[in-house]
Amino acid sequence: MDQTTLLNGLADFIASSPTPFHAVDTMARRLRAEGYQALAEGERWQLQAGGRYYVVRNGASLIAFKYGKDLDKGIQMVGAHTDSPCLKVKPNPVVNSQGYLQLGVEVYGGVLLAPWFDRDLSLAGRVSYLTKKGERAKALVNFSRAIAFIPSLAIHLDREVNKNRTINPQTDIPPVLAQLPGPDAGADFGQILADQLAAEGVTDVASVLDYELCFYDTQRPAVLGLNNEFFVGARLDNLASCYAGLEALLAAPEGQSQLLICNDHEEVGSSSCCGAAGPMLRQFLERLVPDVERRNQIIHHSLLVSADNAHGIHPNYADKHEQNHGPLLNKGPVIKINANQRYATTGETSAYFRHLCQQLNVPVQAFVVRTDMACGSTIGPITSAEIGVSTIDVGLPTWGMHSIRETAGTADLGYLIAILQKHFAEPA
Q: Needs which cofactor (predicted)?
Protein backbone atom coordinates (compact mmCIF):
# COMPACT_ATOMS: atom_id res chain seq x y z
CA MET A 1 0.00 0.00 0.00
CA ASP A 2 1.48 3.37 -0.98
CA GLN A 3 2.14 6.18 1.50
CA THR A 4 -0.77 8.36 0.40
CA THR A 5 -3.25 5.52 0.83
CA LEU A 6 -1.89 4.69 4.30
CA LEU A 7 -2.05 8.31 5.46
CA ASN A 8 -5.57 8.76 4.10
CA GLY A 9 -6.56 5.58 5.90
CA LEU A 10 -5.07 6.83 9.16
CA ALA A 11 -6.84 10.18 8.75
CA ASP A 12 -10.17 8.40 8.17
CA PHE A 13 -9.58 6.13 11.18
CA ILE A 14 -8.80 9.06 13.49
CA ALA A 15 -11.78 11.07 12.20
CA SER A 16 -14.14 8.15 12.84
CA SER A 17 -12.66 7.44 16.29
CA PRO A 18 -13.18 10.42 18.61
CA THR A 19 -13.38 8.08 21.62
CA PRO A 20 -12.08 4.59 22.50
CA PHE A 21 -15.62 3.28 21.97
CA HIS A 22 -15.67 4.60 18.41
CA ALA A 23 -12.12 3.36 17.74
CA VAL A 24 -13.02 -0.20 18.77
CA ASP A 25 -16.28 -0.05 16.82
CA THR A 26 -14.35 1.06 13.73
CA MET A 27 -11.78 -1.73 14.12
CA ALA A 28 -14.46 -4.35 14.78
CA ARG A 29 -16.33 -3.42 11.61
CA ARG A 30 -13.12 -3.69 9.63
CA LEU A 31 -12.32 -7.08 11.15
CA ARG A 32 -15.80 -8.42 10.36
CA ALA A 33 -15.42 -7.27 6.78
CA GLU A 34 -12.18 -9.28 6.61
CA GLY A 35 -13.83 -12.48 7.86
CA TYR A 36 -13.10 -12.25 11.59
CA GLN A 37 -15.69 -13.84 13.85
CA ALA A 38 -16.92 -11.98 16.94
CA LEU A 39 -16.57 -13.85 20.24
CA ALA A 40 -18.92 -13.19 23.17
CA GLU A 41 -17.12 -13.44 26.50
CA GLY A 42 -20.28 -14.74 28.20
CA GLU A 43 -20.56 -17.74 25.86
CA ARG A 44 -18.52 -20.91 25.31
CA TRP A 45 -15.74 -20.63 22.74
CA GLN A 46 -14.66 -23.27 20.24
CA LEU A 47 -11.55 -21.86 18.61
CA GLN A 48 -10.05 -23.80 15.72
CA ALA A 49 -6.79 -23.64 13.79
CA GLY A 50 -7.17 -21.44 10.75
CA GLY A 51 -9.89 -19.36 12.41
CA ARG A 52 -9.98 -15.58 12.73
CA TYR A 53 -11.57 -14.10 15.82
CA TYR A 54 -11.99 -10.91 17.79
CA VAL A 55 -13.38 -10.05 21.20
CA VAL A 56 -14.37 -6.68 22.69
CA ARG A 57 -14.50 -5.78 26.38
CA ASN A 58 -16.41 -2.76 27.71
CA GLY A 59 -16.73 -1.52 24.14
CA ALA A 60 -13.32 0.14 24.40
CA SER A 61 -10.70 -2.68 24.31
CA LEU A 62 -10.22 -5.28 21.59
CA ILE A 63 -8.27 -8.45 20.91
CA ALA A 64 -8.02 -9.76 17.34
CA PHE A 65 -6.55 -13.24 16.87
CA LYS A 66 -5.49 -15.25 13.84
CA TYR A 67 -5.14 -18.93 14.79
CA GLY A 68 -2.06 -20.31 13.03
CA LYS A 69 -1.21 -23.79 11.86
CA ASP A 70 1.00 -24.63 14.86
CA LEU A 71 0.09 -22.75 18.03
CA ASP A 72 2.99 -24.36 19.90
CA LYS A 73 5.43 -22.22 17.89
CA GLY A 74 4.15 -19.22 19.81
CA ILE A 75 1.97 -16.17 19.16
CA GLN A 76 3.34 -13.02 17.60
CA MET A 77 1.65 -10.14 19.42
CA VAL A 78 1.28 -6.41 18.92
CA GLY A 79 -0.15 -4.16 21.61
CA ALA A 80 -1.39 -0.56 21.59
CA HIS A 81 -3.97 1.53 23.43
CA THR A 82 -7.22 3.13 22.34
CA ASP A 83 -7.48 6.04 24.78
CA SER A 84 -6.01 9.54 24.58
CA PRO A 85 -5.89 12.43 27.06
CA CYS A 86 -9.08 14.47 26.84
CA LEU A 87 -11.79 16.38 28.70
CA LYS A 88 -14.58 14.10 29.98
CA VAL A 89 -18.05 15.36 30.93
CA LYS A 90 -18.95 15.21 34.63
CA PRO A 91 -22.07 13.36 35.87
CA ASN A 92 -23.99 16.57 36.72
CA PRO A 93 -22.30 18.88 34.25
CA VAL A 94 -24.73 21.70 33.45
CA VAL A 95 -23.57 25.16 34.52
CA ASN A 96 -25.30 28.46 33.79
CA SER A 97 -22.62 31.12 34.06
CA GLN A 98 -23.73 34.62 33.11
CA GLY A 99 -26.43 33.14 30.91
CA TYR A 100 -24.11 30.82 28.99
CA LEU A 101 -24.53 27.04 29.00
CA GLN A 102 -21.32 25.30 30.01
CA LEU A 103 -20.50 21.70 30.87
CA GLY A 104 -18.24 20.75 33.75
CA VAL A 105 -15.39 18.47 32.72
CA GLU A 106 -12.78 16.23 34.28
CA VAL A 107 -9.25 16.02 32.92
CA TYR A 108 -8.57 12.49 31.67
CA GLY A 109 -4.88 11.62 31.58
CA GLY A 110 -1.96 13.99 31.16
CA VAL A 111 -3.68 16.61 29.02
CA LEU A 112 -1.67 19.50 27.60
CA LEU A 113 -4.41 22.04 28.36
CA ALA A 114 -3.31 25.22 26.55
CA PRO A 115 -4.01 23.93 23.00
CA TRP A 116 -7.67 23.23 23.91
CA PHE A 117 -8.51 26.92 23.97
CA ASP A 118 -10.22 28.47 20.93
CA ARG A 119 -10.69 25.15 19.14
CA ASP A 120 -13.87 23.91 17.42
CA LEU A 121 -15.01 21.15 19.78
CA SER A 122 -17.57 18.40 19.46
CA LEU A 123 -18.80 15.74 21.85
CA ALA A 124 -18.85 11.94 21.53
CA GLY A 125 -18.99 8.76 23.57
CA ARG A 126 -21.37 6.11 24.84
CA VAL A 127 -24.83 6.65 26.31
CA SER A 128 -26.73 4.16 28.49
CA TYR A 129 -30.48 4.62 28.41
CA LEU A 130 -33.86 3.14 29.20
CA THR A 131 -35.88 2.10 26.17
CA LYS A 132 -39.57 2.77 25.71
CA LYS A 133 -40.10 -0.89 26.64
CA GLY A 134 -38.35 -0.35 29.96
CA GLU A 135 -35.14 -2.18 29.02
CA ARG A 136 -31.58 -0.96 29.51
CA ALA A 137 -29.62 -0.33 26.31
CA LYS A 138 -26.55 1.56 25.12
CA ALA A 139 -25.50 3.35 21.97
CA LEU A 140 -22.63 5.39 20.63
CA VAL A 141 -23.23 9.08 20.09
CA ASN A 142 -21.25 11.65 18.11
CA PHE A 143 -22.41 15.22 17.59
CA SER A 144 -19.81 15.43 14.76
CA ARG A 145 -20.23 19.17 14.16
CA ALA A 146 -18.58 21.81 16.33
CA ILE A 147 -20.93 22.55 19.24
CA ALA A 148 -18.55 23.97 21.87
CA PHE A 149 -15.37 25.93 22.49
CA ILE A 150 -13.21 27.19 25.36
CA PRO A 151 -12.65 30.92 24.79
CA SER A 152 -9.36 32.45 25.87
CA LEU A 153 -9.29 35.46 28.16
CA ALA A 154 -8.27 38.61 26.26
CA ILE A 155 -4.69 39.72 26.85
CA HIS A 156 -6.03 43.12 27.91
CA LEU A 157 -7.48 41.43 31.01
CA ASP A 158 -4.33 39.45 31.81
CA ARG A 159 -1.26 41.39 30.70
CA GLU A 160 1.12 38.76 32.13
CA VAL A 161 -0.40 35.83 30.25
CA ASN A 162 2.60 35.41 27.91
CA LYS A 163 5.06 35.45 30.80
CA ASN A 164 3.57 33.17 33.38
CA ARG A 165 0.32 31.57 32.32
CA THR A 166 -1.30 29.00 34.56
CA ILE A 167 -4.50 27.08 33.80
CA ASN A 168 -6.90 26.02 36.54
CA PRO A 169 -8.59 22.81 35.32
CA GLN A 170 -11.64 23.41 37.51
CA THR A 171 -12.44 27.00 36.57
CA ASP A 172 -10.70 27.81 33.27
CA ILE A 173 -11.72 25.00 30.92
CA PRO A 174 -15.48 24.29 31.09
CA PRO A 175 -16.54 24.52 27.42
CA VAL A 176 -19.28 26.91 26.30
CA LEU A 177 -22.13 25.28 24.33
CA ALA A 178 -24.88 27.87 24.04
CA GLN A 179 -26.37 31.14 25.21
CA LEU A 180 -29.37 30.61 27.48
CA PRO A 181 -32.46 32.85 27.69
CA GLY A 182 -31.34 34.28 31.02
CA PRO A 183 -29.07 33.91 34.06
CA ASP A 184 -31.54 31.59 35.80
CA ALA A 185 -32.37 29.36 32.83
CA GLY A 186 -31.41 25.70 32.89
CA ALA A 187 -30.82 22.94 30.38
CA ASP A 188 -31.76 19.25 30.35
CA PHE A 189 -28.54 17.54 29.26
CA GLY A 190 -30.23 14.13 29.20
CA GLN A 191 -32.77 15.44 26.71
CA ILE A 192 -30.01 16.99 24.62
CA LEU A 193 -28.40 13.53 24.41
CA ALA A 194 -31.72 11.83 23.64
CA ASP A 195 -32.37 14.31 20.82
CA GLN A 196 -28.92 13.68 19.37
CA LEU A 197 -29.39 9.91 19.56
CA ALA A 198 -32.70 10.29 17.72
CA ALA A 199 -30.95 12.32 15.04
CA GLU A 200 -28.49 9.44 14.66
CA GLY A 201 -31.28 6.86 14.30
CA VAL A 202 -31.66 5.67 17.91
CA THR A 203 -35.35 6.42 18.41
CA ASP A 204 -36.30 4.15 21.32
CA VAL A 205 -34.86 6.33 24.11
CA ALA A 206 -37.30 6.88 26.98
CA SER A 207 -34.71 8.41 29.31
CA VAL A 208 -30.93 8.68 29.58
CA LEU A 209 -29.51 6.75 32.52
CA ASP A 210 -25.83 7.63 32.25
CA TYR A 211 -23.04 8.40 29.79
CA GLU A 212 -19.29 8.42 29.14
CA LEU A 213 -18.58 11.41 26.94
CA CYS A 214 -15.56 13.45 25.98
CA PHE A 215 -14.92 16.59 23.97
CA TYR A 216 -12.71 16.42 20.88
CA ASP A 217 -11.33 18.70 18.19
CA THR A 218 -13.31 18.58 14.95
CA GLN A 219 -10.38 19.57 12.74
CA ARG A 220 -9.47 16.68 10.45
CA PRO A 221 -5.89 15.34 10.31
CA ALA A 222 -3.73 16.86 7.59
CA VAL A 223 -0.43 16.41 5.77
CA LEU A 224 1.75 19.51 6.14
CA GLY A 225 5.21 20.77 5.19
CA LEU A 226 6.80 22.07 2.01
CA ASN A 227 7.56 18.49 1.04
CA ASN A 228 4.53 16.88 2.70
CA GLU A 229 6.71 15.43 5.42
CA PHE A 230 4.48 16.01 8.47
CA PHE A 231 1.22 14.34 9.48
CA VAL A 232 -0.73 16.38 12.04
CA GLY A 233 -3.85 15.30 13.88
CA ALA A 234 -5.58 14.51 17.15
CA ARG A 235 -5.05 11.30 19.11
CA LEU A 236 -1.98 10.11 17.20
CA ASP A 237 -1.04 8.82 20.65
CA ASN A 238 -2.09 6.14 20.26
CA LEU A 239 -4.55 5.62 17.41
CA ALA A 240 -1.63 5.67 14.98
CA SER A 241 -0.33 2.46 16.59
CA CYS A 242 -3.80 0.87 16.65
CA TYR A 243 -4.15 1.60 12.95
CA ALA A 244 -0.65 0.32 12.16
CA GLY A 245 -1.25 -2.87 14.14
CA LEU A 246 -4.57 -3.53 12.44
CA GLU A 247 -3.20 -2.91 8.95
CA ALA A 248 -0.24 -5.18 9.64
CA LEU A 249 -2.45 -7.96 11.00
CA LEU A 250 -4.81 -7.88 8.03
CA ALA A 251 -1.92 -7.90 5.55
CA ALA A 252 0.20 -10.55 7.30
CA PRO A 253 0.38 -13.97 5.58
CA GLU A 254 -1.21 -17.07 7.06
CA GLY A 255 0.75 -19.57 9.10
CA GLN A 256 1.96 -18.00 12.33
CA SER A 257 -0.51 -17.36 15.15
CA GLN A 258 -1.01 -13.59 15.43
CA LEU A 259 -2.66 -11.40 18.05
CA LEU A 260 -3.43 -7.68 18.24
CA ILE A 261 -4.53 -6.20 21.56
CA CYS A 262 -5.69 -2.60 21.91
CA ASN A 263 -6.35 -1.71 25.55
CA ASP A 264 -8.24 1.19 27.05
CA HIS A 265 -7.13 3.25 30.09
CA GLU A 266 -3.38 3.36 29.37
CA GLU A 267 -3.33 7.11 29.93
CA VAL A 268 -4.59 6.68 33.50
CA GLY A 269 -2.53 3.68 34.62
CA SER A 270 -4.15 0.68 32.86
CA SER A 271 -5.81 -0.63 36.05
CA SER A 272 -9.24 -1.72 34.87
CA CYS A 273 -11.01 -4.83 33.63
CA CYS A 274 -10.06 -3.87 30.07
CA GLY A 275 -6.73 -2.15 30.73
CA ALA A 276 -3.33 -3.75 30.30
CA ALA A 277 -3.07 -4.27 34.07
CA GLY A 278 -6.37 -6.13 34.02
CA PRO A 279 -7.04 -9.76 33.12
CA MET A 280 -8.33 -9.39 29.55
CA LEU A 281 -5.33 -10.82 27.68
CA ARG A 282 -4.57 -13.44 30.35
CA GLN A 283 -8.16 -14.67 30.29
CA PHE A 284 -8.14 -14.82 26.49
CA LEU A 285 -5.01 -16.98 26.54
CA GLU A 286 -6.48 -19.21 29.28
CA ARG A 287 -9.55 -19.86 27.14
CA LEU A 288 -7.41 -20.39 24.05
CA VAL A 289 -5.10 -22.87 25.83
CA PRO A 290 -6.68 -24.23 29.05
CA ASP A 291 -3.70 -26.46 29.87
CA VAL A 292 -1.33 -24.41 32.06
CA GLU A 293 1.86 -26.25 31.08
CA ARG A 294 1.21 -25.93 27.36
CA ARG A 295 0.10 -22.31 27.68
CA ASN A 296 3.30 -21.35 29.50
CA GLN A 297 5.36 -23.03 26.78
CA ILE A 298 3.49 -21.11 24.08
CA ILE A 299 4.01 -17.80 25.90
CA HIS A 300 7.72 -18.63 26.16
CA HIS A 301 7.86 -18.87 22.35
CA SER A 302 5.85 -15.65 21.87
CA LEU A 303 6.91 -12.01 21.60
CA LEU A 304 4.96 -8.78 22.09
CA VAL A 305 5.73 -5.55 20.25
CA SER A 306 4.23 -2.79 22.37
CA ALA A 307 3.63 0.12 19.99
CA ASP A 308 3.17 3.56 21.55
CA ASN A 309 4.46 6.88 20.28
CA ALA A 310 7.94 8.13 21.22
CA HIS A 311 9.14 11.68 21.80
CA GLY A 312 10.78 13.03 18.66
CA ILE A 313 13.44 15.66 19.30
CA HIS A 314 11.83 19.11 19.18
CA PRO A 315 13.92 21.67 17.22
CA ASN A 316 13.02 24.44 19.71
CA TYR A 317 13.68 22.34 22.80
CA ALA A 318 16.54 20.04 21.84
CA ASP A 319 18.00 20.31 25.34
CA LYS A 320 15.05 18.30 26.66
CA HIS A 321 16.50 15.19 25.01
CA GLU A 322 19.41 13.00 25.98
CA GLN A 323 22.29 14.03 23.71
CA ASN A 324 22.70 10.79 21.76
CA HIS A 325 19.06 9.72 21.78
CA GLY A 326 16.99 12.36 20.01
CA PRO A 327 14.74 10.56 17.47
CA LEU A 328 13.98 12.43 14.25
CA LEU A 329 10.69 12.37 12.38
CA ASN A 330 10.75 10.32 9.14
CA LYS A 331 13.85 8.42 10.25
CA GLY A 332 12.14 5.21 11.30
CA PRO A 333 10.47 3.64 14.35
CA VAL A 334 12.01 4.20 17.77
CA ILE A 335 13.12 1.51 20.23
CA LYS A 336 12.33 2.79 23.73
CA ILE A 337 14.70 1.81 26.54
CA ASN A 338 14.70 2.51 30.27
CA ALA A 339 16.96 1.02 32.94
CA ASN A 340 14.14 1.20 35.52
CA GLN A 341 11.74 -0.89 33.42
CA ARG A 342 9.41 1.94 32.47
CA TYR A 343 9.80 0.29 29.07
CA ALA A 344 9.94 -3.51 28.69
CA THR A 345 12.70 -3.59 26.05
CA THR A 346 15.59 -5.98 26.70
CA GLY A 347 18.81 -6.46 24.79
CA GLU A 348 17.36 -9.60 23.19
CA THR A 349 14.05 -8.07 22.13
CA SER A 350 15.84 -4.99 20.83
CA ALA A 351 18.15 -7.19 18.78
CA TYR A 352 15.13 -9.02 17.37
CA PHE A 353 13.49 -5.76 16.28
CA ARG A 354 16.70 -4.35 14.82
CA HIS A 355 17.13 -7.54 12.82
CA LEU A 356 13.63 -7.15 11.38
CA CYS A 357 14.49 -3.59 10.37
CA GLN A 358 17.74 -4.72 8.74
CA GLN A 359 15.93 -7.36 6.70
CA LEU A 360 13.50 -4.76 5.36
CA ASN A 361 16.09 -1.99 5.03
CA VAL A 362 14.01 0.18 7.38
CA PRO A 363 15.81 2.79 9.52
CA VAL A 364 15.53 2.40 13.27
CA GLN A 365 16.24 4.75 16.17
CA ALA A 366 16.56 4.57 19.96
CA PHE A 367 15.16 6.71 22.75
CA VAL A 368 16.41 7.02 26.33
CA VAL A 369 15.05 9.79 28.53
CA ARG A 370 17.52 12.22 30.09
CA THR A 371 18.85 10.77 33.34
CA ASP A 372 17.70 13.87 35.24
CA MET A 373 14.09 13.60 33.96
CA ALA A 374 11.22 11.26 34.79
CA CYS A 375 10.30 8.64 32.19
CA GLY A 376 6.80 7.80 30.99
CA SER A 377 5.62 4.26 30.46
CA THR A 378 3.41 2.12 28.22
CA ILE A 379 1.38 -1.08 28.21
CA GLY A 380 4.62 -2.96 27.47
CA PRO A 381 6.01 -3.56 30.99
CA ILE A 382 2.49 -4.02 32.37
CA THR A 383 1.53 -6.70 29.85
CA SER A 384 4.90 -8.38 30.12
CA ALA A 385 4.53 -8.59 33.90
CA GLU A 386 0.94 -9.84 33.68
CA ILE A 387 1.50 -12.79 31.33
CA GLY A 388 5.29 -13.24 31.23
CA VAL A 389 5.78 -12.57 27.52
CA SER A 390 9.04 -11.19 26.12
CA THR A 391 8.36 -7.61 25.05
CA ILE A 392 9.85 -4.66 23.21
CA ASP A 393 8.54 -1.09 23.40
CA VAL A 394 8.65 0.87 20.16
CA GLY A 395 6.82 3.83 18.65
CA LEU A 396 6.56 6.50 16.01
CA PRO A 397 8.58 9.65 16.78
CA THR A 398 6.12 12.42 17.59
CA TRP A 399 5.98 16.09 18.54
CA GLY A 400 3.46 17.60 20.95
CA MET A 401 2.45 14.36 22.63
CA HIS A 402 -0.78 14.81 24.63
CA SER A 403 -1.62 18.01 22.81
CA ILE A 404 -5.01 18.34 21.13
CA ARG A 405 -3.06 18.09 17.86
CA GLU A 406 0.13 16.04 17.54
CA THR A 407 2.71 15.68 14.75
CA ALA A 408 4.40 12.63 13.21
CA GLY A 409 6.44 12.01 10.07
CA THR A 410 4.62 10.87 6.95
CA ALA A 411 7.23 8.20 6.15
CA ASP A 412 7.26 6.58 9.58
CA LEU A 413 3.77 5.06 9.43
CA GLY A 414 4.71 2.90 6.46
CA TYR A 415 7.94 1.85 8.16
CA LEU A 416 6.08 0.73 11.29
CA ILE A 417 3.40 -1.19 9.40
CA ALA A 418 6.05 -3.02 7.36
CA ILE A 419 7.93 -4.04 10.50
CA LEU A 420 4.80 -5.17 12.35
CA GLN A 421 3.65 -7.17 9.33
CA LYS A 422 6.99 -8.99 9.21
CA HIS A 423 6.85 -9.54 12.97
CA PHE A 424 3.41 -11.13 12.62
CA ALA A 425 4.66 -13.44 9.88
CA GLU A 426 7.72 -14.93 11.59
CA PRO A 427 8.24 -16.89 14.81
CA ALA A 428 10.39 -15.05 17.35
A: Zn(2+)
Contacts of 375 (CB under 8 A, 6+ apart): 338, 340, 342, 343, 369
Confidence at 428, pLDDT banded by 50, 70, 90: low
Instruction: Please check whether the domain covering 86-217 is classified as CATH 2.30.250.10.
Output: yes
pLDDT in tens, 88-144: 999 999 999 999 999 999 999 999 999 999 999 999 999 999 999 999 999 999 999
In order of 10, 217, 223, 282, 336, the CA distances from 226 in angstroms are 21, 25, 10, 47, 30
Q: At what angle do helices 412-425 and 236-251 cross, to 10 degrees?
A: 50
Question: Where exactly does CATH 3.40.630.10 map onto the chain?
Answer: 3-84+234-425
Using the 8-state DSSP alphabet, how is residue 309 labeled? -
**Alpha carbons within 13 A on the beta-carbon side of 352:** 22
Strands 365-367 and 61-66: unpaired
CATH of region 3-84+234-425: 3.40.630.10
Q: Which of 54, 58, 41 is nearest to 212 (CA)?
A: 58
SS3 210: strand
